[in-house]
Amino acid sequence: MPAPGENLKVNPDRLWDSLMDMAKIGPGIAGGNNRQTLTDEDAEGRALFQSWCEAAGCTMGLDQMGNMFARREGTDPDALPVYMGSHLDTQPTGGKYDGVLGVLGGLEVLRSMNDLGIKTKHPIVLTNFTNEEGARYAPPMLSSGVMAGIHTQDWAYARVDAEGKTFGDELKRIGWRGEEEVGARKMHAFFELHIEQGPILEAEGKDIGVVTHGQGLSWTQVTVKGKDAHTGSTPMPMRRNAGLGMARILEKVEEIAWSHAPHAVGAAGHIEVYPNSRNVIPGEVIFTVDFRSPELSVIEDMEARLRVEGQKIADDMGLEVAFEKMGGFDPVAFDEGCVTALRNAAERLGYSHMDLISGAGHDACWMNRLTPTAMVMCPCVDGLSHNEAEEITKEWAMAGADVLLHAVVETAEIVG
Ligand code: HGY
Ligand code: MN
Ligand code: MN
């Protein structure tokens, strides 16, 4: 029986084949994926994932938010399970690895434990969280947020997509609403493998990121109202151009983020223009400002300045403006013990590694409120993510899954 550190390695070809097979479901238009949450493609990906987990000897649990839990038994059925996981849903123009590497890397851990005949005291549970991306249904990490008691299930069920379909209706429609109470599961620890989605690991030439912290996130929805009017016959002094108001506020967002360089970031990725006609001055614009920083005080300052300075811009232009907090979470410090298990695993396996602050949000950020939690990251090419050209190497995927395997087996207490 190999002790951790001997031949405890995953099968990279099998992992890569599973990643490529999953990528065939909900293909994008430029080599990535469009497998948005609660779509038929999401349902198809869930079914494939369940079949793989059952083939690996797991039993599948499903809660009322559609979170999936593949359980591998331990020698002590009463011991709290060690959880690992991430998400299978993607951005509309997403990559093949964001979230998916964490779910299928976890599946590879289970498959490798079977190959090596490893038994652990604690059961192990692999999770696929519903709607991590927040692209179709804001906010991100919605279902792990309900598990952590951040959102109520009713509030989550009532979230509406751009076509007016509610989360609850769509979850039922695709047939993935389980019976389990959300948040009833107790965990011994939680680990998430994820691609970095930034440029640091590749630039530093490191195989592994040991994530000690996650930066905080703030989403503010801004509605600017002016007056629809003809773009040709309306004299400039008479215009109340909501589109121009948005442009000036977004200039201010850029300035606010830069004022907290080098770590703070800010942008708007979601923009709705009404009536969005080529020869009509926009009467209303709705957009979401995404601010992030490792420091809570910086996030709070950026949110406050957006409101004060955005209001001044609107007043000066004779526009109306409203601000609505759409979601967010405070910066996260992960569990020292779990972080050390990951760092020691990378060391033992001979992978180059460095400590890292996660720039993106992850389900682990909410799991960290429920149980000792940490994340392991692998590089991605040019740091690119949330883009169909997102790419990693098989070697990077293997390194991440190997480290996850060691940390999970060690934390679950290998037996015999
Ligand atoms: O927004 C995020 O950071 C994550 O990708 N959902
Ligand atoms: Mn992700
Ligand atoms: Mn993402």
TrEMBL record:
<dbReference type="Pfam" id="PF01546">
    <property type="entry name" value="Peptidase_M20"/>
</dbReference>
<feature type="binding site">
    <location>
        <position position="98"/>
    </location>
    <ligand>
        <name>Zn(2+) 1</name>
    </ligand>
</feature>
<feature type="binding site">
    <location>
        <position position="87"/>
    </location>
    <ligand>
        <name>Zn(2+) 1</name>
    </ligand>
</feature>
<feature type="binding site">
    <location>
        <position position="133"/>
    </location>
    <ligand>
        <name>Zn(2+) 2</name>
    </ligand>
</feature>
<keyword id="KW-0378">Hydrolase</keyword>
<comment type="similarity">
    <text>Belongs to the peptidase M20 family.</text>
</comment>
<protein>
    <submittedName>
        <fullName>N-carbamoyl-L-amino-acid hydrolase</fullName>
        <ecNumber>3.5.1.87</ecNumber>
    </submittedName>
</protein>
<dbReference type="Pfam" id="PF07687">
    <property type="entry name" value="M20_dimer"/>
</dbReference>
<dbReference type="InterPro" id="IPR011650">
    <property type="entry name" value="Peptidase_M20_dimer"/>
</dbReference>
<dbReference type="InterPro" id="IPR010158">
    <property type="entry name" value="Amidase_Cbmase"/>
</dbReference>
<feature type="binding site">
    <location>
        <position position="194"/>
    </location>
    <ligand>
        <name>Zn(2+) 1</name>
    </ligand>
</feature>
<feature type="binding site">
    <location>
        <position position="386"/>
    </location>
    <ligand>
        <name>Zn(2+) 2</name>
    </ligand>
</feature>
<feature type="domain" description="Peptidase M20 dimerisation">
    <location>
        <begin position="215"/>
        <end position="306"/>
    </location>
</feature>
<dbReference type="GO" id="GO:0016813">
    <property type="term" value="F:hydrolase activity, acting on carbon-nitrogen (but not peptide) bonds, in linear amidines"/>
</dbReference>
<keyword id="KW-0479">Metal-binding</keyword>
<keyword id="KW-0862">Zinc</keyword>
<dbReference type="InterPro" id="IPR036264">
    <property type="entry name" value="Bact_exopeptidase_dim_dom"/>
</dbReference>
<feature type="binding site">
    <location>
        <position position="98"/>
    </location>
    <ligand>
        <name>Zn(2+) 2</name>
    </ligand>
</feature>
<dbReference type="GO" id="GO:0050538">
    <property type="term" value="F:N-carbamoyl-L-amino-acid hydrolase activity"/>
</dbReference>
<dbReference type="GO" id="GO:0046872">
    <property type="term" value="F:metal ion binding"/>
</dbReference>
<dbReference type="InterPro" id="IPR002933">
    <property type="entry name" value="Peptidase_M20"/>
</dbReference>
